[in-house]
Amino acid sequence: MNTFLENQNWRYATKKFDVSKKITTEDLNILKEAIRLSSSSYGLQPYKVIIVENPELRAQLQPSAWGQSQIVEASHLIIFANETNVDDTTIDSYLKNISDTRNTPIEALSGYGDFMKSKISTLDHDVKSIWTAKQTYLALGNLLNAAAELKIDATPMEGFVPAQVNEILGLDKLGLNATLIATLGYRHEEDATQHYKKVRKSNEDLFITL
C-alpha cells in the first residue's frame, strides 16, 4: 500500500494522550511549515494559528472544550482562528507580500487586487466570516496529513465554545475568532480507540462519476 495511505489508516482522533511524550522542536517546526504552506482562497490565508504551550492557560481552556482531556494531556494545543475584519487593507498587505516575494512591481498586481476586493470586500460581515472560517479547515487538513507522516497523533476538534475561547485568549480584541482546535502528541497505550477499525463510506457510497 502507498505509504501516505498507510499513514492515513494509522491515524485516528486520539482520545487519550501520553503526557510523558513531547513533540520535538524539529517536528513541531515541520508541522508549522505544513500549516504555513497550506492552500487557501487567493492564497490570502485569512487566519492566525495560536500554539498554546502554557499549561495554566490550557487548564483554563479545558472547560470551554467540554472538559475534553486532550486539551491538557496532549503535547501541543493549536487553535485556528479566522480573521473577522478582512478588508482592502488586508488585500493590499497580501499584494505587497507577493510583490516582495516574487520581485514583481506592485503596479502589475493592481488588476488582481481589484478583482479580490470586488469579491471579498463587498461581502456582508457574517458571510465574510464564514468564508474566512472555511479557510482554516484547509490548513487543518494539511496539519493532520503532516502529523500522520511523522507518526504524530492528532485530534481535530469542533467541540468547544468559540466565544469562551475568544474571551480567554483575547481573540476578539485582535479581530479573530476561534474556529478549530487541534491537539497533538502521542497516543497512550491505554487509549482503546486506537484499536477500533476505521469506519468510512465505501467507494460506491462516496463517489459519483459522471
From TrEMBL:
Indicate whether Oxidoreductase appears among the record's keywords.
yes
Q: CDD domains per the record?
A: NfsB-like
Per the record, the domain of life is: Bacteria
Q: Which UniProt keywords apply?
A: Flavoprotein, FMN, NADP, Oxidoreductase
Task: Please verify whether the record's keywords include Transcription.
Answer: no
Pfam families found in the cross-reference section: Nitroreductase
Q: Which prosthetic group or cofactor does it need?
A: FMN
Which part of the chain is the Nitroreductase domain? 10-186
Query: Which InterPro entries does the annotation name?
Result: NfsB-like (IPR033878), Nitroreductase (IPR029479), Nitroreductase-like (IPR000415)
Family membership, please give it.
Belongs to the nitroreductase family.
Name-wise, this protein is: NAD(P)H-dependent oxidoreductase
The organism of origin for this protein: Flavobacterium gawalongense
Its lineage reads:
Bacteria, Pseudomonadati, Bacteroidota, Flavobacteriia, Flavobacteriales
